Amino acid sequence: MSAQDKSKIQLILSALSTKPGVYRYLDENGKVIYVGKAKNLKRRVSSYFNKNHDSSKVRMLVTKIRDIQTTVVDTEWEALLLENTLIKEYKPKYNIMLKDDKTYPWIAVTKEAFPRVFVTRSPDRSRQEVFGPYASVKYMNALFRTLMEIFPVRTCKLFRQSDRPCLQYQLHRCPGPCAGCISHEEYQSNIHSIIEILKGNSRDIIRQLQEKMMAFSSNMEFEKAQEMKDKLDILTQFKGKSVVVNPDISNLDVFTITEDEQSAYVNFMRVMEGAVIQSYTLEIAHKLEKTTEELLLQGMVEMRDRFGEFSPTVLLPFVPETQLLDVTVAVPQRGDKKKLLDLSMKNALTFMYEKNKRRDLVDPNRRSQQVLNQLQKELGLSKPPMVIECFDNSNFQGEYAVAAMVQFVNAKPNKKEYRHFNIKTVEGPDDYASMKEVVRRRYSRLLEEDKPLPDLILTDGGKGQMEVVRQVVCDELKVDIPIAGLAKDDSHRTNELLYGFPPKIVGVNVKSPLFYLLASIQDEVHRFAITHHRKKFEKGFVHSDLDDIKGIGKSTKEKLLTHFKSVKRIKEAPEAELAVVVGPAKAKVLNDYFHPSH
To answer: For residue 512, with 0-12 CB atoms within 10 Å meaning exposed, 13-18 middle and 19 or more buried, which class applies?
Structure first.
């Protein structure tokens, strides 16, 4: 950005209003590249230019801005509505993307004299009144069959007057409007009932059917009364199956949100008479630095455009700072409404999991790349750490000291590069000296053989382990490899990630894929080190005097060496002390063997 452009931007910023509104960023060609809303235009827009941003997308956006336009409104909610309209108009490059799942079906009612009712995946609102989408195809098919059974309407796509009805009429699947077998008023009454049930107002239709049944019965028209009863039975049976909570809970909307590394997922449910009549999950990608509340509100505005005005009551997972107009916001903590909130969240999570599973099938390395990008971001690395090596020590009271190294490539174990190390230069239990030795041996060899170095070194320990690795890698070998530490809690599991010198704690969500990767690396290096240590520990028993004693087996030998640490101490131990470890009988065998003259 030139000095002239910066001066222009600063001039615009100084004159901005502090009222709610919408701002538009334009590039050098005058094209709108971003639209945003703000409670305070001056504070929000200025923040893009006077602070450092973690997101590379935001930093790139700021470099492209050459002009700013704003529109002032009365409330933040109005700003949100205008923002949604302008995003759809301009389709800005840097705005969040609303992604549809085109597979969801709808039920459509055509706008004709004798409307047709059918299922479609491509609704046309200009020519149809549409209801849905239905996340459950099974539920939608059951609802559609129920409606067609109770209120039959024509099935033919092209309506023509005819002298006699078609075969569908003979099969009782069509009322035959083309041949005048049903009046326009009665047909429209059927359509009205279908629409009301699709809207969730089945209670009124049930009441109307009951009134008709009683009227036919009073007039001695028993066949028509039975017909009404059959319809009532079908409708009430279906309604009973569709109710998910208390049927007295009606006319409310539910919104929940969940997020992963790349997208947010907003689920919407509309509840009438205790039944979910609409359910839809929207994916919002390209989040930039949007907060959870901003993403939720963005999704709510989009749902409002698609499904009409909100119901009088809206259930949310938290109370938003932005005041929603003409609705009552509730955050239920228990009871049937909390069950609805939980059901909505379950739908959002299921949608997210299925979406990611499909993406993983198409691109198996996608998730690995995401978690490595996250690790790069958290540690401030220059590139994603494609190759990670992690070290761990293992010894038994200073005896049989070994170390192990595991290598992960693209966030997956690369077992052909795993290495075991026998400690050669360290006497006694000294983890720091042992770590120095194996790190020195590992990377001096790679340098001598001119082989590639890892992108990140992890130590299975805290600040002390990191420091000794730094001394070898940076001070002695003069190579620049990032070093991080996996600090442990009392259960020897990762509880924090350390980075930098002096080391600082890097916050990692314990439920995030990054935490699972770090924990799996730690578990793997620990397993690999223990396996090697156990083999070496067992070899320590192979050539000892204990093997020559009849009646002393492997398990007894392990008990003795575990307790006394060496064969020399076993020889010197009195029989009573041996008996405490292996029992009096075997203690006598040992004593007789080592001290035959006693």
So the answer is: middle
